[in-house]
Model the fold of this input.
Amino acid sequence: MQRWREARRDPAFALLEGLHPLKHALRFGASIEAAWTSEPGRIKALAAKLAPDVAEGIGALLRPVSTAALAGIASAPLRSPVVALARRPAPGPDPLAGEGRAPFVFLEAPTHLGNVGAAVRAAAAAGAGGLLTTGPHDPWHPAALRGSAGLHFALPVRRVAGPADTARPLVAFDPGGEPLRFGAIPDGAVLLFGTERGGLSPLLKARAGRRLALPMRPGVSSLNLATAVAVALYAWRLGRP
Ligand SMILES: C[S@@+](CC[C@H](N)C(=O)[O-])C[C@H]1O[C@@H](n2cnc3c(N)ncnc32)[C@H](O)[C@@H]1O
Done:
């Protein structure tokens, strides 16, 4: 458990709380250093039922600890009493420099780590090329990993200084933009989303080639950030042949 405490301050590691994040992390190739549980039998049975493809791997990682010890290190009550320590993937080359039709998600200074996690989850599900954030928060914070159910390992997730120069089209999502029409999101675009309270900065709005609004019923000001990311990504995905 000392290992877990040290890893909290070590950006080389990702802390996974619960079975769901551990399952996804293993499925998408995470290197897990160790996993601790207060109920090995229950976790093995749950893994066999819910994630048979990785159940054997999960069983081999488990180290028993007391209920009190587990409760003392988890950041919130655990529905499935297991925590695991994974190595973060090595940064690798700039994901925007690669080829491919998948869009990228760019979150400008998000403030709620739960939103970051939910956006990562939607991005992984929709097949986005990666998710980039700016601002003070680490997108690999345990609270964000909880929100993504461990799907940070399914695509590149990075904090960056700002949108680097890229040849990819930049598309701003802004409630004040032109209404989104089917097929309007180009392949390979970087989709820009603003902060929860203030929206996109004037700088990013000015840099974007297009400003698109997700249509809303009159009277509704905006969608939640992570919801807007999910809707935009699926508008792209469903608009493709
Ligand atoms: C909670 S909203 C911010 C609301 C902010 N008051 C504004 O007007 O932009 C967070 C982000 O989600 C995206 N968003 C939310 N609703 C949207 C909509 N209807 N159309 C386009 N983007 C939306 C935008 O990128 C926005 O910056």
